[in-house]
Design a protein that fits this description.
single chain, 68 residues, alpha+beta, 3-stranded antiparallel β-sheet
Length: 68
């Protein structure tokens, strides 16, 4: 997991994406409801960031969007 994160960070720092799609949705993981947050660079279809959270609120959104 850390290796993928380093590759994504390297890609983003070298070739700033012009457009990034960010979305969240509720998924069922092991019988528990959690929120899946994703950021994707659509031109090359590269997953930039992924985050699972027990809650969906402004603090989680801010934390996800400000990482990197």
């Amino acid at each position: 997991m850390h290796r993928f994160g380093e590759l994504a960070r390297e890609y983003v720092s070298q070739e700033r994406a012009r457009v990034v799609i960010v979305d969240e949705t509720m998924v069922n993981v092991g019988g528990r409801r959690v929120w899946l947050w994703v950021a994707i660079e659509p031109e090359r279809r590269i997953l930039i960031a992924l985050h699972l959270s027990k809650t969906r609120n402004i603090l989680v959104a801010y934390s996800f969007l400000s990482t990197g």
